Amino acid sequence: MPKISPKKTTRKGAKKKTARSFGLFVLFLFVGVTLVAGFYFMALYPGNPEGTSLPILREQAKKNPQHQVSEPQPVPLYEEPPLPHQTPPIVTRDKSPEKKSLPGKPLVAIVIDDMGNRQNTGRALIALDLPLSFSFLPFTPFSDELQKAAHARGRDILLHLPLEPMDSKWNPGPGTLTTTMGQETMRTIFHDNLQSVPTAMGINNHMGSRFTADPQAMRTLLPLIRARNLFFLDSVTSSQSVAYDLAREMSIKTERRTVFLDNDQSPDKIQAQLDLLIKLAEEHGQAVGIGHPYPATVEVLRRYQSQLQARTKMVGISRLVH
Predict the structure, then answer these.
(1) How many Å apart are CA 206 and CA 160, to the nearest integer?
(2) Could you please report the per-residue DSSP string of 40-100?
(3) Most buried residue, 76, 182, 187, 291, by most Cβ within 10 Å?
């Protein structure tokens, strides 16, 4: 039997040990790179609809234009950031409300904007024991499912119509109407937007500080709304908005937002805005709050719903337009 050299045996063992160490190094390196990449994309796309990957949504949008998804946008302080010289107050009432204090509980409607991108918070809001109204952005991934759930509970449904903002860096998303559009182009895009929210009984604006302040643009849009027997809720994203006054002039049912509830997503601030909403409703007979499908908004409304029901008569937004 040939003798095995101790040196050869040592070399083989060393090679095996080196190979094993190198394999472990590669494995840890791969895991590390994967984790870093995961944290990178989570940081880069914080607004992505509750875990759905953007590449998948983009692929779905290519296959089906009715489900386009815009790039995630940072959450603005208002529905769109005001210009430095145009910081609107959280409550915008340039003119005294026409409705005065009435006997009995005041009427309050709360509209939840930006519906369709967030599945879980959307479901939670629809499940609350409050007659909230829901405004859906066009071409969002969970719109069909959430519209059906809201409709089944008898909730008022609106189209959250993307309109041109003052600052072009803010992208309202697919289906945006601009002030430079011709009548036929606007009619076509408006029709497509409305097709994505087929149960809508009214419209309110998503962003739109430039559009709603432009009388010519609003005079092109409002007849399209009137032709379908819809109402228009002015979100009042600009203190210069002419939308409410023009809608009344054209005999279109309309109303204005009174309070934004969750520009500041601190639960204490949201509750303070709800207190303000009730106070203004008590003074004027009715008030309209606008919120968004944020987790903090869901939680505060859940905690506050018994107080809302005790101090006000909660109604769908369709009850307050006139």
Answers:
(1) 6
(2) HHHHH-TTSGGG--HHHHHHHHHH-GGG--PPP-PPPSSSSPPPTT----SB--SS--SPP
(3) 291
Distances (CA, A) of 136 to 2, 151, 205: 83, 12, 11
The contacts of residue 79 (CB under 8 Å, 6+ apart) are 113, 206, 207, 235, 237, 260
Closest CA to 113 of 300, 317, 321: 317
User: Is residue 19 domain-resident?
Assistant: no
Q: Which CATH number characterizes residue 212's domain?
A: 3.20.20.370
Q: Where are the alpha helices (DSSP H) in the chain?
A: 6-44, 54-63, 119-127, 143-152, 183-196, 215-227, 243-249, 267-284, 295-311
Helix or strand run (H / E) with residue 202: strand 202-207
Would you say residue 75 has pLDDT above 50?
Answer: no
Q: Judge whether 52 lies within some domain.
A: no
Give the tens place of pLDDT for each residue, 147-172. Answer: 999 999 999 999 999 999 999 899 99
Residue with tokens 């409002």: 222
* DSSP 8-state assignment for residue 317: G
Rg of the Cα atoms in the chain: 26
* φ/ψ of residue 191, rounded to 5: -60, -45
Does 50 score more than 70 pLDDT? no
Those residues with Cβ within 8 angstroms of residue 76's Cβ, 6 or more apart along the chain or in another chain: 170
Residue 29 is predicted with a pLDDT of 63
* Residue 30's pLDDT band (cuts 50, 70, 90): low
Strand 157-163 and strand 254-256: the pairing is: unpaired
* 162 membership: H or E segment, kind and range: strand 157-163
pTM of the model: 0.73
Does the pLDDT at position 119 exceed 80? yes
In a domain, 79, yes or no: no
Determine, yes or no, domain membership for 41: no
